[in-house]
Amino acid sequence: MRKTITILAALITIMMINLASALVIDINIQESFSKGEQVYFDYSISSDVDIDIEYTPYVLCEDAPQALLEKKTASLSAGVIYKNTYTDFTVSEDISPQTCTAGINIDEPVFSRKEKSFEIATNPQVDLTIKLNNKVFTKGENIEISYSSSLTGLDVQAELTYPDNRKEQITLPASLKATEIGTYELSVQASAEGYESVTRTEQFGVIEKEAEVQSISLCNGDGVCDSGENLRNCPQDCNEKILSPEEADKIERRNLSLIVLGVVAGILFILALVYFLLKKKSER
């Protein structure tokens, strides 16, 4: 019995090997994909015998969205090529350059796999920061404009739009005189070989002059100590003698102490009166 089982297992193994060798998988994918392109590949599966299969197409990239794996089925006829297309993610600027793998796994009735490599060809973006010495300038003030980047040899083009919508090409760094009142817009485009170009915009304003902030006093100087006036903020109305802030503080602290002493004395008097009344009542 054991010998019979061993022979059957060997026959099944040989049959599975022959069946796997009878399956032919082919993947057709372009060598690289760039920004804006959708990753896809065409594939075909053929067999020497009639067979029903379950298979899974996939794309593997280290730095890219991973789609959910989906099993598919197909009924293969001997000598007839089964064809289909698999689509995956769209290449965005956030995906770094890398080597990926496109593949087909046949899961049933036997396992078989075919893979093919391809490239994600995206360029890193130029890093660029616009630098201004201020955001709001007064008329006649100097406007200093420059930029910073970790890259060298940048091709930088800058355009300044004035408040009257007049446009001017400027070379950075630049020093300009704030002659027109209003809002300015600066647009800077930078490019470098092997990098994706970027455009940065910045707005700044020019005003006539800085606003003058005037302090408002509660003291009207009419000789009457009105509501809101006191020795500190209006000594000329609240005391015949003009007091310094230190003297006003001293007077206020003394008045506060007298109030506290009066309250304490009142409480002691009430307690003493209650004690006297209770004692007199107990003597009766």
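^ that was protein a. below is b, sequence first then the tokens
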Amino acid sequence: MSMTNWTVAFFSLVLAQGAAAAATDGDSARNNWLMMVTTENTDPAKAAEFNDWYDNVDVPDVLKVPGYERARRGVEQRISEFAPTESQKDPLRYVALYDIKSVAIDKTIIDMLMASWGMEKSHHSTDLLKVTERVYFHQYGLAHSTPNRKPPKANQYIYMARFDCCRDSIAARGFDVWYDQKYVPAVLASAGFTRVSRYKLYRVLMDHPVKMPGFLSVVELAADSSAQAAQNVREVRTRLSVADQANLPVVEESRSMFLQIKDATR
């Protein structure tokens, strides 16, 4: 995990603040965290080299850090309804999602920073990596899943929606009710979807301003193709009532679809 000068500023900030862990809705989720790292490959002609380094060097190094339990990587699927046409000219994005179990997340973050320095000293970094987002989230409430199994030949996709919804406590409560009682059931009743988890923003670790909505929804689904995965997402939206469909654009800040290319555990 390549380092930049944001690490020094963050390290000092954590030591000065001693920030407390954010609250969640369930004891079973209290110690569950997520690190999301969005990246670009600086040389598209070396995609194989970039992915080999990420899968076989970086991911194993990160999973050695105490608390880091699972790593999933995905490559962006250029689907017009999830991204403006002009953005499709930008470099292809990759995402890495790291599931973390920690009772002291700030210490865990510092452990990750120290490990990153060690990786650089061991020459485990690469010039092909450009980090565009590095964000920590706290699991918000329980994850919801179905017993559906992935068909043998289906691909695994990660659909992520970012929600910017809650200007005050009343809006927050209303969003919680809508998400749990309307959105999640619509997801789990639609074809291909197996699991949906919601996360609350905890800390952005970048040395430049990055706009980040307050909530992230991570949805796992299986489909034969990205086109089929996109169709499955459309089915979710049609399952919502007319009023709920009208409200979606108000709270959804952005949507992304990634083809999962790596799933590793400690």
